[in-house]
């Protein structure tokens, strides 16, 4: 609570206050009118009292999705750039809230940890399935900012495609998205992609863009660049992934 109270950034959900009663602690946060990014991408229902009411949300435009991703990148860059960096450890669409203007704010810091800059620490494997870095899924238990970077890369792909990142199944020994196999590939495919380069992989991914996004005025080169940037967040080994300040810079260069 003390750490959350110190965080001041437009893309970090601010802690307004808290109250303690016996063994219970109530945290008070700013109300976010648009709900979670997860809802806008995947859910068309909302609860009113004890009833679940279905309604249709308008599709997020490409420009709005870029704005949201830029906001998340700025928030993570702030956390990772602190004197003692904060590793969120659970970056996912469900933990990104949106205000009335669709400005993204990172929330859910229950798993977050402060670390010494450039160091990694042993930790339990935690987070949202589908967003976990491969080193965690393979039993690697050291925590660093690179785990957040990978989750951010997956978030970028999820936002662009509208697909569920946690709909994972095992096929032919490789982890794949249920709806599409372009996110995670088997070893032979990965070797081919390495030879072709990140740009070639990004061009292939353009076909995966969410069909609900209007194609009117969409700049194909900007879409390719978006996927290229995302691919640089999910590379292996972790040391080859970009740092969040680089994501911020590259995302700001995308033409809309």
Automatic annotation (TrEMBL):
<protein>
    <submittedName>
        <fullName>Receptor-like kinase</fullName>
    </submittedName>
</protein>
<keyword id="KW-0418">Kinase</keyword>
<dbReference type="GO" id="GO:0005524">
    <property type="term" value="F:ATP binding"/>
</dbReference>
<dbReference type="InterPro" id="IPR051564">
    <property type="entry name" value="LRR_receptor-like_kinase"/>
</dbReference>
<dbReference type="InterPro" id="IPR000719">
    <property type="entry name" value="Prot_kinase_dom"/>
</dbReference>
<keyword id="KW-0675">Receptor</keyword>
<feature type="domain" description="Protein kinase">
    <location>
        <begin position="1"/>
        <end position="256"/>
    </location>
</feature>
<dbReference type="InterPro" id="IPR008266">
    <property type="entry name" value="Tyr_kinase_AS"/>
</dbReference>
<dbReference type="GO" id="GO:0016020">
    <property type="term" value="C:membrane"/>
</dbReference>
<keyword id="KW-0808">Transferase</keyword>
<dbReference type="InterPro" id="IPR011009">
    <property type="entry name" value="Kinase-like_dom_sf"/>
</dbReference>
<dbReference type="Pfam" id="PF07714">
    <property type="entry name" value="PK_Tyr_Ser-Thr"/>
</dbReference>
<dbReference type="GO" id="GO:0004672">
    <property type="term" value="F:protein kinase activity"/>
</dbReference>
<dbReference type="InterPro" id="IPR001245">
    <property type="entry name" value="Ser-Thr/Tyr_kinase_cat_dom"/>
</dbReference>
